[in-house]
Amino acid sequence: MDLAEKSEKLQLLLDDDPGKAIDEALKLSGNINVDLLQASIFVDAGAMIKNFDVVSKGVEIYRDAIGRFQDNSELKYNLANGLHSLALCTNYINFSWYYDTENYRLEARQYFYIAANDSEASIDVRSQSYTNLGNLLWSSYRWVEAYDFYTLALTENPKNGVASSGALKMLRYALGQELGDYELIVEEIEHLASHVNKNLESIYSYSGDYGVKGIVDEVKDIPCNEKADLTIEGDEYEEFVISNNLTLSPTIHSHSHESKYWDTINISSVTSSIDSGSAVPEIFAMINLLKSDYILARQLFFSASNRLFSETGSYNDTLDYACFGVNESALALAQRSALDILDKVAVATLSYLEVGGAKRTSFKEAWFKKRKEKDDKEEFKPKILQEIENGNTALLALTEVSRDLSNKSGYLFEKQASRNSSTHRFTVLHDFGEIPTSQTGCLEHFNYEIFFRESLRTLKLARSSIIYFVQMVLIREKKLSEHSNGIVMPLTVPSHEEIRGFDE
Predict the structure, then answer these.
(1) pTM
(2) How far apart are CA 125 and CA 123, in angstroms?
């Protein structure tokens, strides 16, 4: 029996009897291709029956293969699937699951991201990698980022029904959290349900019979409607914001709208004691500034990428295809400004939760106790841990974003490195040729297109974090109101635009 026949036989067994598929795979031996077939069965079948040891065997085979073929993104995609399966095979007893699976999930996110962004990888591998990265992010309630990656998966493969079902699930979650515009969310959900039903073949090829059944069951009660043709009646900037889903709202993307105020996500109310007086709580000023800082970073990115800043300087050419000028500097500043927002999110969160040291904290350090020894495991500060264990999933999402930024194995780590570069050293962008290495270490060289793409995604990350922050407050305030005793009096915070007369 040749390899193709063995593979077909095992795949048929996989859905019907995963245990038997594992037994048959254990009998295989031969070259690297046979090893990889064995690994795929160990990971897929082991995950189906939640056998941690079997999945571990598959993971080790993939690690060994990557050691021999380091540039193969498909192997990295498969290893990421195995690592994610190890996390899912770990018993979920309580919040400790996130501690126990942290390293598996951190490494899996990194490998999915690498495979998704490899131009040499196939369309299917890139689309599946974005999809599975979305699934992995959702496991720690990072639903805004997950939605963005499902969207990218559909950009790579417009027939990816698994990705559209994932995006649908994220919007249903937003609906349940009372975030965003109800009618727009419902309209998008119905469009995505229609896409799922039209692309069952792609779901089968990605997930098999088991995947098709689960996804179809999720959408069976949803009316299927086609999305109306989109016409954005606005300028180029508005078109850029909407098409890239950069508004501070979970649902305004790909829709025209009537209001000139697009960025509508907000905090409606917070609990305050009578002793605090009549002053508006500081958190309202904080969310205002988080929003305005983000909007400025977004405008800066758009203007820089479209070269809208007037140039008055003349520069020396360094003969290495480097790009110099105010627009390049503005692009680096936009990326840095977007990441600076994360530190302010951390300050606002600690201030709101009344955790000490808020004004001196950073997004990297805000959530964790100081470690006595370098190799000690990170532990949450008591109030952070208590709030997460009380069910504040949005706070959990923020802490997990922090891990990806601060850990060298995190898929967002390079963003932190490039921010440090543009803050303390010199960022040089190149639009052609090989990217040089600085002899002194004082210059950081980047490919322009890659830097542009990552800066856009940094904007999306800042947007996600602001939404998580608002959601974190909403979750906590709802719980506080449910458990409050005594008289509760509302304090209405007026519209800044109305007070200032901006709309007259």
Answers:
(1) 0.91
(2) 6
